[in-house]
């Protein structure tokens, strides 16, 4: 019998995952979705071909604790800032985490513009989970 | 000598051989083939399509390339041909792959980045400038908007005085695997299939040297499938195209000869070789027994191979050269017709010129130094290899049976159903996660990733960077074309496409060819069909 | 300012004014349960307007999300402001969940609609509290109708069907699909049947099967003497075909409920059910507290229980 009320535990982390724009590389983000689920998080998966507007709307409605995107097609220097700007315009203080193919030289640029964490090929499950938990903890 | 051996000998004797000694490095002459019948060149072609294997012709070394503007890629193409590349293979950027122009809001940050940007015929003219399309064979990796790109290629050929009947090459145009793996669909599956069958019909009649579909397992595997799933899903898609063309009354012996395949070469050496051999055997048997082909050429599974990009690591990237070499060797031993070898900087960015050259050199080493090309199917008859081949076939047959049941006796309907109910994406996602978990639990060692990590903190190697100005430049090019063209002619040609789309008895190719010649853009042409066919949203299976 | 820092009354105040972030946050607190959720219940209850609650259920992949997506595009043209609760199971092993229904419900951003993905969080009892709570919150914030998507049947769906005024059961053409739905107990809860994917072969056969089964079975409306027989509609959700008619059938059912005072009965039953769930939760918590540290002391278990019960109910 489940008798304890849920709010005595650590609140469940809710993460919105999406592919922004046309990039169709979704193997990694789907793996990440399962990794986060298996770490006890609730993952709202938006899928492919999302816009900054659809991601902002989902983040609001789902009360997301974090937003995770993956970028593989070298559009990150345009796409990540446009996502951050959209979050800023909507007055949403939610950490943005990015995975995929990000050349080393671009990491400081993205971090400088406000991306909370960046993970690349081969990132182990543990690192993925830690990055999300850490980014969420840093904002609360 | 028994009959089969005799038939083989006749075929072999009639083959024009390359002018090199077929002997070991130490000078010992070797036979062209060992073992029992059926021999290479004999149904069901488990042992290869040609009696003489690579003695008559090496595989085509075809390196995939494309980035920036058409001019940038044109320069890389010329470099590849200078370096001994034997054919061209074109990589398009994301907007082009998805049927959007460079000035679309969807194109933000993606123009020219992951391939070359093509908006109008003008770009295609520049892409193949000073390359004799009558001499070189070209492959184009494009699916959703394939008809528009093929139309542009035909138009460029005509401008250079090459008739479409003399154009040789392949357009990927395998829309089914887009819903399953690569996700570059535009319209829903059924209208997309109609475009594919229109293209098959058109090229069968008008372009005898053209391969209208390259049925691709590569993307299925890279998206996460196992080797057996790659084999099974790919061949099932192949059966689906055959059934679709047959349903239209096309002749299996005619279009069957023009179908070709594209597989992945991953790191499990013998599993890959078994997969390649099983692919030929299954295809031949199904084409003959289920689809009634009588011409052996329509039973032959010809395939291109690419080494597994997903096997390559960002950590200690030079190690990837070794992986690629081993994978390339499996493709050669598996009897591939052409091969792309990945660059060692695969997990970091599009390849630099140097990385791409090393990749090409790697397969040249396999072809020219190892001696594996002396003997056709050199591993045939080895108990492990034969068992693996049988095992791959068995697993694939189980999938076909499932799809056949889903489709009530039609593989085509079964594939549609499997796309619709999430079977393919679900199986692929499960396999991808299993693989990731094995690495995470250290049940599977990836050198440099979860073991042998000394050296991981070295600085990143030199990367190819695409200049930001490409996007701006390409938009200006497009703007200029839009200014110059006759907009009334454009509008009329687009209306003709819409009309053709509404009438399933009309072939879409001729109006699309007319439209590209007016410099209608790729997005405009796609929109004409989006208006009629609608668009597709993926299955939400994670 | 982050809505996370607001007090519950401030948060609810902003939500009632239509602040989407505040609504999102409020739903989180409702899902977590406990005192803040109770407080929200009290604060939103007076603002409710009696929004029509529609459950949409059926086998995995039947097209529930696609249909829901079409509805939230269609309803604003009728001047309505729909909200959606899309329920998916949590992993029993890890408690986590992947919620993917939004993939097929795009295009609502900015149209005034609202979609919330909900995980079952392990035990159905939780949903029995949070779903009515979320429905109430949507209602209070001016949304209506509230659409609830759930998969298949089970305790969760029974809870959800209990929360709905009208339950739409979605099936697909194909041999045996109607039979499956029957076996799964969906026939009893259906107020409206939808045969989705009517573009496929066999839709008419499925309709015939359903009609036959309705002839033979105990349909709720017929049962309670109101003479209501669930209509069977055909839709092709991917093209939006039949969606308007489906909505008309849903409103017709609502009209029937109102005309026969069945709506009142249903809502009263629902009210009792929610009170019972809340009561049970409270009791369970108190019981847990009184059992804490309890050791055998020579009295019989029956005596101990009787004594504790007397204390608890005092
Ligand atoms: C697999 C693959 C494909 C598959 C994709 C299948 C699919 N459905 O995903 C196929 C074959 C279809 C494909 C096609 C193309 N590809 Co590709 N592809 C790859 C490849 C080899 C591996 C990517 C991958 O899935 N890795 C495995 C997963 C598990 O890892 P991951 O995605 O990196 O995710 C991990 C981390 O990054 C992190 N992570 C990722 N996302 C997130 C999100 C969050 C929130 C967090 C916390 C962590 C996180 O955690 C994950 C687990 O470790 C890469 C190169 C490489 N080796 O990385 C090229 C690569 C990305 N592709 C490339 C290109 C160019 C293309 C094409 C455009 C080619 C073309 N012109 O036709 C097309 C476009 C496809 C499309 N629709 O977008 C280029 C991009 C170039 C660049 N960035 O400069 C690459 C880099 C290869 C190359 N060097 O040329 N590709
Ligand atoms: N042919 C056809 N396909 C449809 C129709 N409606 C939905 N689909 C497809 O069916 C698949 C499942 O649709 P969803 O809307 O996700 O179904 P669901 O019932 O919400 O699925 P779950 O939430 O996973 O249980 C998708 O591929 C849709 O495109 C239809 O009317 N006709
Ligand atoms: Mg759904």
Please, could you describe this protein's structure?
The complex is a heterotrimer of chains A (about 140), B (about 550) and C (about 325). Chain A has about 140 residues and is α/β, with parallel strands linked by helices. Chain A has a single domain (about 15-120), classed as Cobalamin-binding domain (Rossmann fold, 3-Layer(aba) Sandwich). Chain A has five helices and five strands; from the N terminus they run βαβαβαβαβα. In chain A, helix 2 packs across helix 3. Helix content of chain A is about 40%, strand content about 20%. With about 550 residues, chain B is an alpha/beta fold. Chain B has one domain (about 55-440): Alpha-Beta Barrel (TIM Barrel). Chain B has helices at about 5-15, 70-80, 95-100, 120-125, 145-160, 175-180, 190-205, 220, 225-245, 250-255, 270-290, 320-335, 355-370, 385-405, 410-420, 425-440, 470-485, 485-500, 510-515, 520-535, and strands at about 60-65, 85-90, 140, 170, 210, 215, 260-265, 305, 340. In chain B, helix 2 links the parallel strand 1 (about 60-65) and strand 2. In chain B, helix 5 packs across helix 19 (about 510-515), helix 9 (about 225-245) crosses helix 14 (about 385-405) and helix 14 packs across helix 15. Chain B is globular, with a radius of gyration of 23 Å. Chain B starts with a helix and ends in a 9-residue tail after the last helix. In chain C, strands 4-2-5-1-6-7-8 form a seven-stranded parallel β-sheet, sandwiched between helices. Chain C is globular, with a radius of gyration of 21 Å. Chain C is built from 13 helices and eight strands. Chain C has three domains: about 1-45, no CATH class; about 50-260, Rossmann fold (3-Layer(aba) Sandwich), CATH 3.40.50.300; about 275-315, no CATH class. Chain C has about 325 residues and is an alpha/beta fold. The complex binds cobalamin, guanosine-5'-triphosphate (GTP) and magnesium ion. Guanosine-5'-triphosphate sits at the interface of chains C and B.
Sequence-ordered SSE layout with sheet pairings:
The complex is a heterotrimer of chains A (140), B (542) and C (314).
Chain A: E1 14-20, H1 27-38, E2 42-50, H2 52-61, E3 66-71, H3 76-89, E4 96-100, H4 107-113, E5 117-119, H5 125-139
Helix pairs in contact in A: 2-3
Chain B: H1 3-14, E1 60-65, H2 70-82, E2 87-91, H3 94-98, H4 121-127, E3 138-141, H5 146-159, E4 169-171, H6 176-182, H7 189-206, E5 210-211, E6 213-216, H8 218-222, H9 227-247, H10 252-255, E7 259-265, H11 269-290, E8 303-307, H12 319-333, E9 338-340, H13 353-369, H14 383-406, H15 411-420, H16 423-440, H17 469-484, H18 487-502, H19 509-517, H20 522-533
Parallel strand pairs in B: 1-2, 1-9, 2-3, 3-4, 4-5, 6-7, 7-8, 8-9
Helix pairs in contact in B: 2-4, 5-19, 9-11, 9-14, 9-15, 11-12, 11-14, 12-13, 14-15, 18-19, 18-20
Chain C: H1 8-16, H2 20-32, H3 35-44, E1 53-58, H4 64-74, E2 83-88, E3 97-99, E4 114-119, H5 124-140, E5 146-151, H6 155-163, E6 166-171, H7 177-183, H8 186-189, E7 192-196, H9 203-216, H10 220-223, E8 232-235, H11 243-259, H12 262-291, H13 301-313
Parallel strand pairs in C: 1-5, 1-6, 2-4, 2-5, 6-7, 7-8
Helix pairs in contact in C: 1-2, 1-3, 2-3, 2-5, 3-5, 5-6, 5-12, 7-9
């Amino acid at each position: 019998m489940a008798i304890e009320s849920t709010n005595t535990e650590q609140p469940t982390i809710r993460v919105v995952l999406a592919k922004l724009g046309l990039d169709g590389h979704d193997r990694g983000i789907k793996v990440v979705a399962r990794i986060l689920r298996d770490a006890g998080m609730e993952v709202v998966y938006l899928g492919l071909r999302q816009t900054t507007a659809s991601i902002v709307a989902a983040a609001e409605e789902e009360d997301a604790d974090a937003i995770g995107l993956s970028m593989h097609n070298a559009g990150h220097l345009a796409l990540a800032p446009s996502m951050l700007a959209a979050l800023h315009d909507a007055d949403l203080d939610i950490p943005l985490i990015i995975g995929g193919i990000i050349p080393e030289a671009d990491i400081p640029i993205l971090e400088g513009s406000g991306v909370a964490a960046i993970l690349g090929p081969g990132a182990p499950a543990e690192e993925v989970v830690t990055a999300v938990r850490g980014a969420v903890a840093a904002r609360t | 000598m028994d009959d089969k051996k005799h038939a083989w000998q006749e075929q072999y004797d009639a083959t024009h051989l390359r002018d090199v000694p077929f002997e070991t490095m130490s000078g010992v002459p070797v036979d062209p083939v060992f073992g029992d019948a059926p021999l290479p060149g004999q149904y069901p072609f488990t042992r290869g399509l040609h009696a003489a294997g690579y003695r008559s012709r090496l595989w085509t070394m075809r390196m995939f390339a494309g980035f920036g503007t058409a001019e940038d890629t044109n320069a890389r193409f010329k470099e590849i041909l200078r370096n001994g590349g034997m054919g061209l293979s074109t990589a398009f950027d994301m907007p082009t792959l998805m049927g959007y122009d460079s000035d679309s809001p969807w194109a933000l940050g993606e123009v020219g980045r992951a391939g070359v940007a093509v908006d109008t015929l003008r770009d295609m003219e520049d892409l193949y400038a000073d390359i004799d399309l009558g001499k070189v064979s070209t492959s184009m990796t494009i699916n959703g908007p394939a008809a528009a790109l093929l139309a542009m290629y035909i138009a460029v050929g005509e401008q250079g005085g090459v008739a479409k009947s003399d154009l040789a090459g392949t357009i990927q145009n395998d829309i089914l695997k887009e819903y399953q793996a690569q996700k570059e669909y535009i319209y829903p599956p059924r209208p997309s299939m109609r475009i594919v069958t229109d293209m098959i019909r058109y090229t069968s009649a008008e372009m005898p040297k053209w391969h209208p579909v390259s049925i691709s397992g590569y993307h299925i595997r890279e998206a996460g499938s196992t080797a057996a799933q790659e084999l099974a899903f790919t061949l099932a898609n192949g059966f689906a195209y055959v059934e679709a063309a047959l349903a239209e009354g096309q002749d299996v012996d005619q279009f069957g000869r023009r179908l070709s395949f594209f597989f992945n070469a991953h790191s499990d050496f013998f599993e890959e070789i078994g997969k390649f051999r099983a692919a030929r055997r299954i295809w031949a048997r199904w084409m003959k027994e289920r689809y009634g082909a009588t011409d052996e050429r329509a039973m032959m599974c010809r395939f291109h191979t690419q080494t597994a990009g997903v096997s390559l690591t960002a950590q200690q990237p030079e190690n990837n050269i070794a992986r690629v070499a081993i994978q390339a060797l499996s493709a050669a031993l598996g009897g591939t017709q052409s091969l792309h070898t990945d660059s060692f900087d695969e997990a970091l960015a599009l390849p630099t010129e140097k990385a791409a050259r090393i990749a090409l050199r790697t397969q040249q080493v396999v072809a020219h130094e190892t001696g594996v090309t002396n003997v056709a199917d050199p591993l045939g008859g080895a108990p492990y290899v034969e068992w693996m081949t049988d095992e791959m076939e068995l697993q694939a047959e189980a999938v076909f049976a499932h799809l056949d049941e889903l489709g009530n006796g039609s593989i085509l309907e079964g594939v549609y159903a499997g796309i619709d109910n999430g079977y393919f994406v679900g199986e692929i996602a499960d396999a991808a996660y299993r693989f990731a978990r094995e690495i995470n639990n250290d049940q599977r060692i990836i050198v440099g990733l979860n073991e042998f990590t000394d050296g991981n903190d070295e600085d990143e190697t030199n990367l190819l960077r695409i200049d930001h100005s490409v996007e701006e430049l390409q938009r200006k090019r497009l703007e200029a074309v839009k200014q110059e063209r006759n907009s009334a002619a454009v509008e009329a040609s687009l209306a003709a496409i819409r009309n053709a789309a509404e009438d399933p008895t009309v072939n879409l190719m001729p109006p699309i060819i007319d439209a590209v010649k007016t410099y209608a853009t790729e997005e405009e042409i796609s929109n004409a069909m989006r208006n009629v066919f609608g668009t597709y949203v993926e299955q939400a299976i994670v | 300012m982050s809505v996370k820092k607001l007090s519950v009354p401030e948060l609810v105040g902003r939500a009632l004014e239509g602040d989407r972030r505040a609504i999102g946050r409020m739903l989180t607190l409702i899902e977590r349960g406990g005192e803040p959720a109770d407080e929200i219940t009290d604060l939103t209850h007076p603002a409710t307007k009696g929004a029509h609650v529609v459950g949409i259920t059926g086998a995995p992949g039947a097209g529930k999300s696609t249909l829901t997506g079409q509805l939230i595009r269609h309803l604003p043209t009728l001047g309505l402001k729909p909200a959606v609760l899309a329920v998916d199971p949590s992993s029993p092993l890890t408690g986590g969940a992947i919620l993917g229904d939004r993939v097929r419900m795009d295009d609502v951003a900015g149209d005034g609609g609202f979609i919330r993905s909900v995980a079952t969080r392990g035990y159905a009892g939780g949903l029995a509290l949070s779903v009515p709570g979320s429905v109430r919150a949507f209602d209070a914030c001016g949304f209506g109708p509230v659409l609830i998507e759930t998969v298949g049947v089970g305790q969760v769906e029974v809870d959800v069907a209990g929360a709905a005024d009208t339950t739409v059961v979605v099936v697909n053409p194909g041999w045996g699909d109607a039979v499956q739905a029957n076996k799964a107990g969906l026939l009893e809860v259906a107020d409206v049947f939808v045969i989705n994917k009517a573009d496929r072969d066999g839709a008419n056969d499925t309709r015939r099967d359903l009609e036959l089964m309705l002839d033979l079975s105990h349909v709720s409306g017929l049962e309670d003497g109101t003479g209501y027989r669930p209509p069977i509609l055909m839709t092709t959700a991917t093209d939006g075909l039949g969606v308007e008619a489906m909505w008309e059938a849903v409103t017709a059912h609502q009209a029937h409920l109102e005309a026969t005072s069945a709506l009142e009965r249903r809502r009263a039953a629902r009210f009792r059910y929610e009170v019972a769930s809340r009561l049970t939760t409270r009791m369970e918590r108190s019981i847990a507290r009184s059992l804490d540290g309890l050791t055998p002391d020579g009295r019989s278990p029956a005596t101990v229980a009787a004594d504790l019960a007397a204390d608890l109910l005092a």
